[in-house]
Amino acid sequence: MSNLQTVHNGLGAPNRKLNQFGDYEDVTNMSVDDWDYRWSLNQTKFHMPKVHPMLQKYIDKLLNGKKRQTVFVALCGKTLDMKWLLDQGHEVVGNECVDSACRQFFEENNIPYTSHSLDGVDGALYTATDGSPIKLYRCDCFELPKVMKEKVSCIWDRGGFVALPVKERSRYALTLRAIMKNDCRYLLDCFLLDNSKFGGPPFNCDEKDVKQAFETFCKIEKLETRDAFTKWQESWGISSFVEEVYLLHPK
Ligand SMILES: C[S@@+](CC[C@H](N)C(=O)[O-])C[C@H]1O[C@@H](n2cnc3c(N)ncnc32)[C@H](O)[C@@H]1O
């Protein structure tokens, strides 16, 4: 990571943009190695010490009346959402590009695990050894269709779509479509924010952006818009931060 982000304000003075990690690196194009670097510095304030309220609120919409489902947790980090989904009786399939994040998930939740390398891609499959129905694909998400045998009936995405480089959104949408069952439901958590003041991630995502990425093959329903501005966002130098939740399913 060496690209210092410098924006000029038109008066000749550089106007540097803070990023989520508390420095001024340009994070608009983070690679897998860049995320690995942030995890190595424990710059993981995005990790929540509780289950995400929107997952709990909309779990019934995600399940669509079904009981035990395979829930794919996109760009999962070590989110506690996965443990909660397991405790609800679901099977969890996660994807995360950083090894230490996968290991921390199992270790911090006292789930014994093993891993083996994935065929044909740079990655590993982490599985529980106590029978817990969870596996984490440690690889670049764009490699998933090559390595995932199963298709999924539910997707939970908090900090995936909005954390990837904006130019990758359509490619990401196609990647997810490739692992969706035809009756899959996809719960997507997004934010409206001013990235001309704050470097990200997350990156602003309005309804037009969701449509642009998914509309050709998914129906899109906006479930909620709410003010999500806290002290953390205030420290980013922005004055508004709005969370929007969508439910998508293949047409
Ligand atoms: C903003 S965090 C969100 C993590 C998690 N969903 C949560 O709610 O705590 C984004 C995560 O995606 C991972 N990531 C970033 N780019 C990725 C990629 N191309 N493939 C797989 N994982 C990626 C990062 O390492 C990071 O853990």
UniProtKB/TrEMBL annotation:
The enzyme's first-digit EC class, named in words, is transferase
Q: Which GO terms describe its cellular component?
A: cytoplasm
MF terms in GO: thiopurine S-methyltransferase activity
Q: Which InterPro entries match?
A: SAM-dependent_MTases_sf, Thiopurine_S-MeTrfase, TPMT
**Keywords from the UniProt entry:** Cytoplasm, Methyltransferase, S-adenosyl-L-methionine, Transferase
Per UniProt, subcellular location reads as: Cytoplasm
Q: What is its main location?
A: cytoplasm
Keyword Oxidoreductase on this protein? no
User: Do you know which Pfam families this protein is assigned to?
Assistant: TPMT
Keyword check for S-adenosyl-L-methionine, yes or no: yes
Q: Which superkingdom is the protein from? A: Eukaryota
Enzyme Commission number: 2.1.1.67
Q: Which BP terms from GO are recorded? A: methylation
Kindly state which reaction or reactions the protein catalyses: S-adenosyl-L-methionine + a thiopurine = S-adenosyl-L-homocysteine + a thiopurine S-methylether
| Assigned protein family | Belongs to the class I-like SAM-binding methyltransferase superfamily. TPMT family.
The name this protein carries in UniProt is thiopurine S-methyltransferase
Q: What is the lineage of its organism?
A: Eukaryota, Metazoa, Spiralia, Lophotrochozoa, Mollusca
